[in-house]
Amino acid sequence: MKHNESTDDLLRRHRKFWEMDDVDSPLMSVGRYVSLQNRDPIPMANGKPVQDGEILLPAALRAIHLMEQSNAPDAVVQGDFIRGRSPYDLCWTEAISGCQIRWRAGHIWADPFIEDLNEVEHLQANPDSEWLSLLLELTRLLAEAADGAYPVTQPLMRGPIDIASAIVGDEPLCWEMVDEPNRFRLLMRVSTDLFITIAKAWRDAAPLFAGGSCLYGIWAPGTAVRIQADNAALMSPGTYRDFLLPCDERICAAFDYPLMHTHSGVLHIIADALLELDGLRAIQVSLDYPAPPPISELLPVLQKVNGRKPLIITGSVTQSELDSLLDALSPAGLCLQVALRDG
Which in 121, 163, 250, 277 has the greatest CB count within 10 A? Predict the structure, then answer.
């Protein structure tokens, strides 16, 4: 595949991001804030739109219909970023793990399915899973349509703690952590196995772009994966380090450029532990407006991350908050993808 000069120049800038080289300015995009919108209903195989509360089954879906729910980028290079096309988000990891998937209130939800927690040791990613087959078929269709002109990017894949919570439910997960720590460790190990197996299968189906992969529009010269730990909100820094850090280490060892997605509301719980992960290449923080903490309280931990690892900040900010981020953070290894809102 031949790139034009602007694409090649951007690939060089992205390589500098990962290496945290000295630069004059961060990778950056600034848009206008729009509140979260419901998605359009998915077209089912019978041609009818999905109904509220309906359980989704892979046999009732068609990869070609899901492909039509996303558009190819008008231009590969858009400002500081490379745009691609991703499989439609269908709670893939949860579905492949065994959760029932449901359309409710304009979004996709996964229902817990294990009540007897002694069953968790039998969980595994079934290579014959219809959900996995659907994901890989959709990925190959997207790759065929792209034909190397733009990257096929990773769909949303929950991290181990989020998969575990989806499988057993939030409240049982918390009790398990306290009352049965050894069984909880087993659940986390199984959830990590599931994540790695699914992510590797997807990665094998998605072609590299210019010899690399894209996350958040940033090209990495190798295999990249987005991990997440949203349900770390249920943990303390100590329990995260004890139970989940070993899971993150295993995932980081399986890919060249692992990136951890976090939220501003949990960053104080996991930041110090993540900075100890040598294999973790970057940390992404979603700002949880209007939830606390405010940017002013986040700055110390953001500065700490910014000094050690590449940092991606996404979400809604005011102009004064954006100015404070630019003033307080080094442009080396920094990416800001933000939307401006009024005060």
Answer: 163
Domains of the chain by residue range: 5-340
pLDDT band of 216, cuts 50, 70, 90: very high
DSSP lists the bridge partners of residue 336 as 28, 313
Place of tokens 């189906």: 205
- Sheet containing 100-104: which strands, arranged edge to edge? 55-56, 100-104, 107-111
310 Rama class: left (phi>0) / alpha (psi -120 to 50) / beta: beta
Q: How far apart are CA 184 and CA 196, in angstroms?
A: 18
**Does residue 46 have a pLDDT over 90?**
no
Distance CA 40, CA 303 (A): 39
pTM for this predicted structure: 0.93
Alpha carbon separation from 9 to 16, 79, 157, 208, 216 (Å, rounded)? 11, 12, 30, 18, 18
CB atoms within 10 A of CB 217: 23
**Amino acid (one-letter) located at 19:** E
Q: Could you tell me where the DSSP H helices lie in the chain?
A: 5-19, 63-67, 92-97, 130-146, 160-168, 170-179, 181-205, 237-239, 245-254, 267-275, 295-306, 319-328
Average pLDDT of the chain?
91
Q: Rounded distance, CA 330 to CA 325, Å?
A: 9
Q: Among candidates 337, 281, 332, 343, which has minimal Cα distance to 313?
A: 337
Reading the block at residue 93, the tokens are 């990891």
* In the predicted structure, residue 43 carries a pLDDT above the cut 90: no
At CA 60, angle to CA 59 and CA 62, rounded to 5? 85
Please state the rounded mean pLDDT for residues 37-49: 77
CATH architecture assigned to 5-340: Alpha-Beta Barrel (3.20)
* CA geometry: angle 192, 151, 204, nearest 5 deg: 40
List the one residue out of 45, 46, 54 whose CA is nearest residue 101.
54
Higher pLDDT, 27 or 290: 27
Yes or no: say if 329 and 323 are a contact pair by the CB < 8 Å rule.
no
Q: Span 304-331, mean pLDDT?
A: 96
Amino acid sitting at position 32: R
